[in-house]
Amino acid sequence: MSEGAEHRLVAWNRELIAAHERLRAALRVVRGSLDGGPLSHDLRLYCHGFCAALGGHHEREDAGLFPELAARHPSLAPVLAKLTEDHQVVASLLNQLDDAMRSPERLGPHLDGLAAIMESHFQYEERQLLEVLAALELDAEPSSMLGPL
Prior knowledge:
Blueprint: H1 3-32, H2 41-72, H3 77-100, H4 104-134, H5 142-146
Helix pairs in contact: 1-2, 1-4, 2-3, 3-4
């Protein structure tokens, strides 16, 4: 195996971890922008950017990465189904974020709940998929599998 091929084999697990870290950092920016006062334009921008990034990540996993994994590893079907279900729950919470942004008192708890579910999802996904991703030979751009993060 060439050195470049070996690097590609371990890159998918690293790409997933990096995507999750960027999303965690984006959520920290949003949460750090809460000051208890009226919602600023910056906070609204951060919230919408975070929603687009997280939603895009899950959409690309559902449309790109998960079908590839399902075809190569049929035994992962229950894991992929659970992850897809989680994506639907997170999408619902993201859709509710606009309502939560109408009130700073509601936004903080909503973001806390979203953060808890997101973190649980990321940890489960990493436990279940990192080993498989470490050996994945897939000639694709990471953004097509994990979103444009």
